[in-house]
Amino acid sequence: MSDPILTVSGVHSHYGRAHILSDVALEVRGGEVVVLLGRNGAGKSTTFKTIVALVRRTAGEITFLGNRIDNRESYVIARMGLGYVPEERRIFTELTVMENLEVGRQPAREGLEPWTPERLFEIFPNLAEMRDRPGGRMSGGEQQMLTIARTLMGNPSLVLLDEPSEGLAPVIIEQMAQTIGLLKQEGLSVLLCEQNLHFARLVSDRAYIIEKGQIRYEGSMAELEENDEVRAAYLTV
Amino acid sequence: MGELIVTILTGLSSAASLFLVAAGLSIIFGVTRIVNFAHGSFYMLGAFIGYTMVQAIGGTIVSYWVAVLIAALVVGLIGVLMEILLLRRIYHAPELFQLIATFGVILVIQDVAKEIWGNEDIVSPRAPGLDGAVEIFGQRLPEYDLALIAIAPMVLIGLRLLFYKTRWGTLVRAATQDRQMVAALGVNQRWLFTGVVFLGSLLAGLGGAVQLPKGGADLLMDFGIIAEAFVVVVVGGMGSLGGAFLAAILIGLLNVFGIQIFPNSTLVMMFLVMAVVLVFRPWGLLGKPETPAATGTEIPNEPLRPAVPMVKVLAGLVLAFLIALPLLQELFPTVLDPFVIVQANEILFFVLFAAALHFIMGPGGMVSFGHAAFFGGGAYTSALLVFHFGLPFELAFPAAPIGAALLALIIGWFCVRLTGVYFAMLTLAFAQIAWSIVFQWTEVTEGDDGINSIWPSDWVTPLVLYYLTLGLTVAGVLLIRRIVFSPFGYALRAGRDSPLRSEAIGINIRRQQWFAFTISGAFAGVAGALFLYTKGSIAPTSMEIARSFDALLMTLLGGVEALAGPVVGAAAFKLLEDLFAASEYWRGLMGITIIALVLLLPKGVAGFAQTGVGRRLGLSRAEEVRA
Ligand SMILES: Nc1ncnc2c1ncn2[C@@H]1O[C@H](COP(=O)(O)OP(=O)(O)OP(=O)(O)O)[C@@H](O)[C@H]1O
Ligand SMILES: [Mg+2]
After folding, report:
1. Higher pLDDT, B97 or B184
2. Which helix (H) or strand (E) holds B210?
3. C-alpha to C-alpha distance for B236 and B31, rounded to whole angstroms
4. Which of A66, B182, B385, B502 has a Cα-to-Cα distance from B23 of 20 to 30 A?
5. d(CA A211, CA A220)
6. How many CB atoms are located within 10 Å of the residue A47 CB?
7. Model pLDDT, residue B290
């Protein structure tokens, strides 16, 4: 296995006075697909937001590609190659598909073939047919594709995907799993969070389980499959 | 026929500047979410700087327009300066602080402009090549009007190209919807914001510079245009350039036709249009309903708590002192000037005024930028009844709160349809309209001179008046506290903190707010009447925007979150005012103080009591520790 590209250690986060994350630690290595599992309200999204500095950590360290990022601003982190796909998708509804992609565009990164709209349309063929459609007039599945494509335009080396399967039809979920596999082939690392164990199983190498803001389990996907006890304790199966 | 066409063309030409200013305001707000109240000041600076540039280099057709563009650029850069020094630090501050801070900028710019260009109005320079007139169906129309008519659509097209055909424009539109997401995609918002403020300020400056040959430049331009620009933005729909364009034309046309229908009060027409639009399309002609902006986590307001014993003791001591003040003054005339009573009196009715405003601002969550309308409204109600009908003090005085409440009932009915900054803009616009009616309707209100020699009955000696003021203020403040902690007050705060949930449990928020607004207006009216009978006169200046800001400042100085805020704030404000009154630059000093306060003391003076230090001093209750 290669070196870790993202390391989170001892991270705490608050919303106002509410203590949400405590002592969260996890890591993602180059080329890996890692899943963060947990029930509703467990703190998955907060973990992601803390990594990309949309929520400020109150303690702990976050390192990306060897650099501390826990004091950096969101845009700097994104420019370093850490892409974030939010749970609520946050498509720019007034902007067309092409314009949404344009907002995500960042200069090419050494050693990686830069993403272009044309290359992305090969992965997401239905987006190609609606280049000039405003984001607000797309289905949930199409929006999910667009938000991933938009993040890829920044040529990230690691992508955080917040519940990519949420609210999608089974066929689309299948597609999504294929897409994640494709990204892995391209050499990207992926950290996703999920409640859907079935989907996580399709794509991930390793898993963490978070509960009440604390990491409760860590292991390979295969190990988790074996461990009925942990699954019953922390996940709704 | 010719006359009609020329009138229409004149209206269109007067829309040009208005469109430029409103477009700039709207663009800045779209991305930064700050309503730049100093936008009118940038317009004024555009006119002044434009004048200086034209004098310096504007001799030929080309150099004239170069001078105009330079003026716009300079104003754009001044905007950048404001963004970097001030706005950047307050993007995450509560709306009120942002509005107040930009108001501080207005005051500073007023003094700077006065220092550089003097008090005299600047007459319109001629635009070379456009100083003649053309004949249209036998009617003459200045050539320059045709230039103005062309400018607005040209700028609109230019802006659309910028926003829809460039990467920068795409980023701005994206940031208008969700600036946090734009940052998460790797865009440095800081320069985006600076750029947007540059563009918006430049447009305001351009608006000021292009209207020079028609209107010249003077020191009153800032408030005049800002109220009109707010109307345009509210009517057109915030964030919609096309809407601003349409609304500017509508208002421009109304202005020229309005003069023919109501020669005395051009703003009445504006009021009517705004009213009609608001009833049928609360978000403006081309606007969209405001969805709560996704700008991160909102931390709810601290719950209000009844005063702690320490504060009650302090309040009791102050009250005892105020009751004894006249006696003390008589006993120790060398220490206490008789003037002290006058000053105390003045502070008292401002306390009531500030408390009235605080009531809708704090518990109500409605930031009114036009409360002077009710202060003045109350005063004018009494004054007009005395002046025209000879009503005695005993009847005219109690009429003040009724008059003010009626006014608040009408204005509030429109305003509570909007929230947040839209509400603030609307209250300001209404107040400016009320001011202009009083100012322009000379037959009834005596206009600029005001109504003089209104004194209370003989039995109301200065001493009685002092105790009347004290009594009414104390009663008013206590009554407001009562209301805040009554079921109505709780419902009001519930509506402020979680509108959706309140609606769900059956609270009609709009009606609650309307009611609160009216109550607040009535209290402000009492304060106004006390002002009238203390001073013996009332003039339109008591209704101007600056007066509304005074009240806001008092609340701000005192801290919005503390119920004792207005009391402390009004006193602090009065002291500051007296301190600066000696200086020629009191406005600028006040402006700088406000800006410094917003930057350094975002919770106000009384809010300070609720910080750790204040708590140790026993000024407020210890925080409950949460598990
Ligand atoms: N903006 C906020 N303000 C206050 N508390 C919040 C906020 N957002 C989330 N929380 C709280 O933080 C905790 C963790 O929330 P988070 O969104 O991280 O959960 P999650 O694991 O992503 O859940 P889900 O599967 O429902 O998306 C929850 O208890 C939630 O109520
Ligand atoms: Mg989540």
Report:
1. B184
2. helix B189-210
3. 18
4. B182
5. 18
6. 28
7. 61
A148 has pLDDT over 90: yes
> A204: Cβ below 6 Å to ligand 1?
no
The per-residue pLDDT for range B381-399, each reduced to its tens digit, is: 998 888 888 888 888 889 9
Cα distances from B303 to residues A131, B226, B356, B494, in angstroms, run 49, 35, 20, 10
Radius of gyration in angstroms for the set of CA atoms belonging to chain B, rounded to a whole number = 25
* Coil vs helix vs strand at A120: helix
Q: How far is Cα A113 from Cα B354, in angstroms, rounded to an integer?
A: 63
Could you write out the three-class secondary structure of B577-594?
Answer: HHHHHCCCCHHHHHHHHH
* Residue in chain B lying closest to A104 (CA): B185
User: Looking at the predicted structure, is the pLDDT value of residue B498 above 70?
Assistant: yes
C-alpha torsion angle, residues A16, A20, A24, A29 (rounded to 10): -90
Query: Please, what's the b/e burial string for B164-182 (b: 16 or more CB within 10 A of its CB; e: otherwise)?
Result: eeeeebbbbbbbbbbbbbb
Q: Give me the residue from B174, B183, B187 closest to A95, CB to CB.
A: B174
**B237-284 per-position pLDDT tens digit:** 877 899 999 999 998 888 888 777 776 666 677 777 877 887 788 788
The gap from C-alpha A9 to its chain's centroid, in whole angstroms, comes to 18
Helices B420-440 and B393-415, axial angle in degrees (round to 10): 140
A103 and chain B in contact, CB less than 8 A: yes
Q: Is the minimum distance from the CB of A18 to ligand 1 under 6 angstroms? A: yes
Q: Ligand 1: which of A11, A12, A17, A20 to mutate, most ligand atoms within 8 Å of CB?
A: A20
Nearest protein CA to atom 5 of ligand 1, as residue: A15
How many angstroms separate the CA atoms of B9 and B256, rounded?
10
Q: Which two tokens stand for residue A153?
A: 């335009």
Which band of pLDDT confidence, cut at 50, 70 and 90, is reported for residue B305? low
- Residue B205 tokens, joined: 């400056």
Nearest to B186 among A16, A75, A95 (CB): A75
Please tell me which of the candidates A95, A99, A103 has its beta carbon nearest to residue B185.
A103
Our mutation pick for probing the ligand 1 site, out of A46, A57, A234, counting the most ligand atoms within 8 A of Cβ, is A46
Are B183 and A78 inside 8 Å of each other by CB? yes
Residue identifier of the C-alpha nearest atom 14 of ligand 1:
A43
Q: How confident is the model at residue B567 (pLDDT cuts 50, 70, 90)?
A: confident
Instruction: Using CB atoms, pick whichever of B167, B177, B185 lies closest to residue A93.
Output: B177
Chain-chain contact of B184 with A99 (C-beta, under 8 angstroms):
no
Minimum distance, in Å, between the CA of residue B323 and any CA atom of chain A: 44
**Which phi and psi angles does B618 have, rounded to 5°?**
80, 20
- For chain B, which domains are there? 2-124+135-289 (1.10.3470), 309-544 (no CATH)
Closest alpha carbon within chain B to A148: B185
CA distance A181 to chain B (A): 23
CATH of domain A4-234: 3.40.50.300
Name the token pair of B273: 């249009």
Determine the pLDDT at residue B264.
Answer: 62
Using the mean position of ligand 1's atoms as its centre, give its distance from the Cα of residue B344 in Å: 52
Which helix (H) or strand (E) covers residue B201, if one does? helix B189-210
Using an 8 Å Cβ cutoff, are B182 and A99 in contact? no
**DSSP-based helix, strand, coil % in chain B, nearest 5:** 75, 0, 25
ipTM above 0.90, yes or no: yes
Cα–Cα dist B148/B154, whole Å: 10
Euclidean distance between CA atoms B108 and B116, whole angstroms:
12
Kindly report the pTM of this predicted structure.
0.84
Instruction: Kindly report the number of other CB atoms within 10 A of residue B458's CB atom.
Output: 7
**Chain A within 8 Å of B301 (Cβ-Cβ)?**
no
Ligand 1 neighbourhood includes A46 CB (under 6 angstroms): yes
